[in-house]
Amino acid sequence: xVQPTRRRDADLLQxxxxxxxxxxxxETAFLLTYLVRFRTGWMATPLGVPPFAGYLYTSFVTLLIFxxxxxxxxxxxxVRRKSLEEDVAGLVRSVILxxxxxxxxxxxxxxxxYSRTFFVLFFSLTLFFLFxxxxxxxGLLRRYLRRGVGVVRVLLIGDSTMKERLLDTFHSLPGLGIxxxxxxxxxxxxxxxxxxxxxxxxxxxxxxxxxxxELVAAHEVDSVLLTLxxxxxxxxxxxAERLGPFHVDVQFVPDMQRIHASRMRLKEIAGVPFIxxxxxxxxxxxxxxxxxxxxxxxxxxxxxxxxxxxxxxLLVRLSSPGPILxxxxxxxxxxxxxxxxxxxxxxxxxxxSSGPVITVAGxxxxxxxxxxxxxxxxxxxxxxxxxLRGDMSLVGPRPERMHFAEKFHREIPRYxxxxxxRSGLTGWAQVHGLRGNTxxxxxxxxxxxxxxxxxxxxxxxxxxxxxxxxxxxxxAY
Length: 477
Description:
- This protein is an alpha/beta fold and about 475 residues long.
- It has 3 domains: about 15-145, no CATH class; about 150-260, NAD(P)-binding Rossmann-like Domain (Rossmann fold), CATH 3.40.50.720; about 285-470, no CATH class.
- It has 13 helices and 13 strands.
């Protein structure tokens, strides 16, 4: 009989490092704030210097509050599940929430009067030290993972289309700390000699399903990933039961490409689980939040950029004959068309002989001023009016002309699902360098990811990254 494995605690390293980092950051920020506020003489202390012991006690209580909030917000979840941007966004939310809780408690403590200036300075320093600590610990964790410390050893079972996608992901993101030890043949036949070729990856075939327990124990497997085709789903319960005595995770990776979905959601109604493989778009409240952001930001953007747009309009008029603004029919949300506005960047007869064509690098149809405008996306500024009108959003899939949308719909599965949300000035595909004459299939994958993963935080991340991409002028022609 195969002896059950002992848990290797592969995920214990990261939360330990992060917890120690947060404790050090919080205590350093608290003690440094006390020193700056009361001991340096830089700030007036009309009520005298409060005793250090009282503030030291408060620091311990504050530490417990913040640590509890960080835990509840998932800031100690495995780092392989989130990016640094997501981590920082979570820190900001948690520090704001923790600050409100600490201030509320300080208000009700009558035995000691706390300096409001102290707390403002403390919360600012806390955020700075926490950020530095997270960045340092992530780098340290990557060094440990490269040495094989704390990695998660994974065994693959199944041959669905997700198998290659998983291997591509693990290979391209070494910071995940996931090592695939090999695969198991689903059927009872002996595997062939040599590794299995999955896409561009060579994967060792360790044995058959009959040898599952022996192989899990021999290779010290932490997690078994089931990349099974839907017709083989009966194996999920069988494998889970057989691995019951073993301290390993068993996870099923649905064959998303077979059902043309990129995300599944688990809901529960009165204890009954529902797995959603496709939804109709943003919820009612999501649409209200997104539209509010669009209206406020577009109105502010129009006011702030009005002097610049007047100058650009004059330059467009002087640089070449023709109208200042270019109006073009584009396909928007729910497959409705609208007139998209841009500063004119091409000759007025640009498509007279060729018909609708996609702009490419070095396009000779552009005017001299048009090349400059396109390089820094300044030709898109009038679309703030489209956003204010409700034709577009600040963030969303870029709108296409009807001619191209119909062509892409015939060639690319799920292409029209991009139109479940408003088209955007910028999007998830664009901030990943997919602008201009880049593969439409790949842009569609990124657009669908955005549609199915929308959040206010994602919109803000995209807007921040857009600024960097605009300044660099990547793929803008």
